[in-house]
Amino acid sequence: MKKEIKTAGAPASTRSEDRRALFPPLTRAEMDARGWEAPDFVYVCGDAYVDHPSFGCAIITRVLEHAGFRVAVLAQPDWHTAEDFRRFGRPRLGFLVSAGNVDSMVAHYTVSRRLRGMDYYSPGGKPGRRPDRASIVYANRIREAWGDVPIILGGLEASLRRLAHYDYWDGKMRRGLLLDSGADLLSYGMGERALVRIAQLLDRGVPVRKIRDVRGTVWVGREGDKIHFPCLTLPAWQEVREGGQAYAASFAEQYRQSDSVRGQALVEPYDGCVLVQNPPMPPLEGRELDEVYELPYQRTWHPDYDSAGGVPAIAEVKFSITHNRGCFGACNFCAIAFHQGREVRARSPESVLKEAEALTRLPDFKGYIHDVGGPTANFRAPACDKQLKHGVCPNRRCLSPDPCPHLKVDHSEYAGLLRDIEALPGVKRVFVRSGIRFDYLLYDKDPSFFRQLVERHVSGQLKVAPEHCSDHALVLMGKPRIAVYEAFRRRYFDLCRACGKEQYLVPYLMSSHPGATLRDAVEMAVWLKREGLNPEQVQDFYPTPGTVSTVMYATGIHPLTGEEVYVCRDPHEKRLQRALLQYANPKNAPLVREALVRAGRQDLIGYAKDCLVRPEEPARGSQPPRKAAGASPFETEEKNARKTPRGGKTPAANRAAKGGSPESKAPVASKTKKNGLSDRWAADTNRAEKGSSRARKAPVASPFETADKNARKTPQVRKASGTKAAARKEKSGTPAAKMQPRKGKK
C-alpha cells in the first residue's frame, strides 16, 4: 500500500482542502493546486466520484495513478454544451469515457420504460445528472471541444455494447458503440491491464489509431487491415440488423469466444468498415488483484458532495469487501459472464484481511462487516483444473442444468477466511449478503461450511435466487431445477433449528423471462401458496445488452441451442404474470382471475383451500344470489377465520359499513403470537410495480434482534394464510421464507 488510507469520517477539524488533496482532482482549482499544467488523462464519468474499489472509475483512476499517470476526473459533466469538457484543458494523452457503474439507460428507466425517481450514483440520489446513452453523448461533446484528441471508451455500458446488439429501449438492433460514438478505442471487460497498456503506448508516441494489438479492446478498421490474432468473421451488420437467426448466431459465437485462453478475435463487417474485437484480456491473478484493491482509496465520496448528503450507492458497500471476480454460474439473464468472464479469480486471504483491518479504523465502523463477496460470494477458484490450461468449456455449463462431473466444490478457504476476519480486533460479526450460489453449496460433501454460514454469517436472512419453480423456465434461465432449491431450503431450516436460530431465506423471483408462459406463472403461484410464501416484490425480466436471455427476447431463439422460445412481450400479459406471483395481494385479484381464465385454470378460482383467488363479487346494488341451505363460504370464513377485535366489529363488518368487499382492502397489519412482529405489506409497492431493478436491493438487516442494531430494518412478508402448509410452519416453529427485492450486483 503506497500510503495510509484515510476516510471521509475524518474529524470535523480536518480542513476541506486537506481532504480534497487525497482525491483525484475534480476541478480546475484542485488540478492547479497540484501544480499540473495539464493531466495525462481526463476520465469522464456518468457517476459522481466515489473513491471506493466497488466503483469502476475509482479503480481505473487509481490504477493509472499507480502506473505513474496524472488523471483528472470530470464527473457528471453538463453535456448540453461542450464547455464543461474544456474544464481541465486538453489532456496530454487523451480522454477516458464511461457511462458509470451501470448502463445509462438502466440507470434512467425501469423495465416498464418509466423514468426512475432516484439515481443511486448521483449526489443526494437526484436523477437527471447524466444523459441517455451517456458514452455516445460524452464522446461527441469531446470531439466538439477538442477535435482529434484520443478517446477511449470503457465501463459496463461500452463493454456490453461493443458489437451489434439489441436495444430494449429503441426496440431494435443498434450498431457497435464505437461507430455511434466516434471514439477511437473501446476497452471491454475488466480494463486495468488493457488501459495501462494503452496509456504506455500513447506515452511512447504511438498514434491511437495504430493501437490494434491490445487484448480486451475493440477497434475500427477497413476490410483487409492486419489483425494480430487468429480471427472469425461474424454475420455482417446488414444481416444482423434484422435480428432473427443471424443475430442469434452472432451472439452465440461471441459467447463461445469470450474466454482468454482459447478465444479468437471477432470481425463484424459494416458498410465501408469493420469492427474488430481482439481476444479477451486474461483475468488478473491473485497478487495482481491484491495490488488493485490495496491502492489508497478514501472509501467515500468526494467532499464536493457533502452538502447534498453524499452518494447513496456507497451505503451498500462501505463496510463490504470484494474477494473475487468472475462467475461460472453463468445465469442466462446475467451479464457478468459477458463482462467479467466465467473464469473465477480471487484475492489472497492476506490481502482481504488487510482490507478488513482498514475497515476497522473507519470512524463510523461499528464492528460489523456487511459482506465478503463478489459476483457470487462462495466462489474462490476456477470451476475445475482444466480451465486454467484449456479455458472454460465453449458448449456446456459448470452448474446447470446439472453439475459437470469435473466440478470442484470446496468452501474450506472461504470458510477459513471468514473466521480469520471475525477474529480481528474490533470485528464483532462478518455477514455474507452478496448472494450465495445455493446449488454449489449443496453439492459440497463437507457440510461444515453450510453450518458455519447458518450459525455465524447470516444476519437474519440469506439471499438466494431460485427465480422460478417451473423446470421448463429454469432451464431457459440457466438455473438448477426447483428440486435442488427445495433440498437446499430443507437443509437450511434444519440447520437453523439445530443452531437455535430463527432466520429467513430471501428467494428472488422473476416473471416474464423468455420461455416462461402464463401457465408457468400459474404453476409458480400454486407453489408459492403451497410453501406459504407471499412475495411483496417481484422482478420482471429486464432485457439488457450482453445476456443470452436478451437475445432470446429479441429473436425468439435460444442462441446457444437454436431452439425456438416463447417470448412474453405484451405489457398486459407481463402484468398478469407478475400478479400471479403476488396472488394474495387483494389489489391483484382481478388480474389473477383473468390470468387463471386465460390459462384454463378456473379451478383455482373459488373458496377451497387450494384456490388462489375468490370469485368476483356482484356489484353493489345488484340482487344477491339466492342463499342455499347452510352457511355460505363467506359466512363460514367470517365465523371461523376472522376473529373479532376489541373494538367489537369484524374487519368484514367494517368494510361492509364502508361499502367495500372483502378483497377491496389490503391486509391490516397484525401481531403474531410467535414473535410479536408486525406482518404487513411493503410500503414500497409502487417501485415494485414499476419493475425497478434498483428496488431489488437486498436489505441490510434482519427484522429480528441481530447484532447489527444500527442497520436498516426491512418490513416482514405476510405469510400466506388459510393453508395447511402455513399452519404447519407456525406450529413447528419453522420461519416462512421472506421475499425481498434483489440487489443490483448479481
Record keyword descriptors for this entry:
single chain, 746 residues, alpha/beta, nine-stranded mixed β-sheet, three-stranded parallel β-sheet, globular, disordered N terminus, disordered C terminus
Question: How would you explain this protein's 3D organization?
Answer:
The radius of gyration is 27 Å and the shape is globular. It is 31% helix and 12% strand. It has 746 residues and is α/β, with parallel strands linked by helices. A 9-stranded mixed sheet has the order 3-1-4-5-8-9-12-11-10, sandwiched between helices. The protein starts with 15 loop residues before the first helix and ends in a 14-residue tail after the last helix. The model is unreliable at 1-14 and 627-746 (pLDDT under 50).
Short description:
The chain is built from 27 helices and 24 strands. It is of the alpha/beta class.
Percent of residues in helices comes to 25-40%
**Mass-distribution shape:** globular
Please mark out the parts with pLDDT under 50 across 5 or more consecutive residues, or reply none.
1-14, 627-746
Q: Write out the strand line-up for the largest beta sheet, numbering strands in chain order.
A: 3-1-4-5-8-9-12-11-10
Helix/strand layout:
Blueprint: H1 16-20, H2 28-33, E1 41-45, E2 50-51, H3 56-66, E3 71-75, E4 94-98, H4 104-108, H5 134-146, E5 151-154, H6 155-160, E6 165-167, E7 172-174, H7 177-181, E8 185-187, H8 192-203, E9 217-221, E10 231-233, H9 237-240, H10 244-256, E11 265-270, E12 273-277, H11 286-293, E13 300-301, E14 320-322, E15 324-325, H12 336-339, E16 345-346, H13 349-360, E17 368-369, E18 371-373, H14 386-390, H15 412-422, E19 429-430, H16 438-442, H17 448-456, E20 461-467, H18 471-477, H19 482-498, E21 504-511, H20 518-531, E22 539-540, H21 548-555, H22 571-581, H23 589-598, H24 633-640, H25 651-658, E23 670-671, E24 678-679, H26 685-689, H27 724-732
Parallel strand pairs: 1-3, 1-4, 4-5, 5-8, 10-11, 14-18, 17-19, 20-21, 21-22
Antiparallel strand pairs: 2-13, 6-7, 8-9, 9-12, 11-12, 15-16, 23-24
Helix pairs in contact: 3-8, 10-21, 13-15, 20-22, 22-23
